[in-house]
Amino acid sequence: MADPRTAAAVVHTLFVGQSLFDDSAVVLNSSITIETPSSQHAGLLMAALRADGALTGSVALPVNEGEAGRILGEADLEWDEWRQSVTDAVAVALPGPQRAVRREQVGREIERQTGTSPGSVVAS
Description:
Elements: H1 4-7, E1 14-16, E2 25-28, E3 31-35, H2 39-51, H3 65-93, H4 100-114
Helix pairs in contact: 2-3
């Protein structure tokens, strides 16, 4: 079993494919992990994994690509608002360039405690 103190230091890259051939895939560490019907579906799955880095099991996605895109837009907007509020609160609590490293550490701890995927609150 992995030591939880060092497990948090492992940062994975998780993103939606970026080429014509893989834009409907969720990619983990440069390997296609999950194929979906469309880029909107891949984005929705990515949003779910971003919000819950330990997500396992079945995930239900809408059949209609347009509906998936609409839901993805709403999810992205909510995520951006939440992330900005966290960033703003940390910046108020730890102002100034001399505390930049500490702000990053706090962001990573927020990711760990909230279960969000690494790099989702603090850009890697």
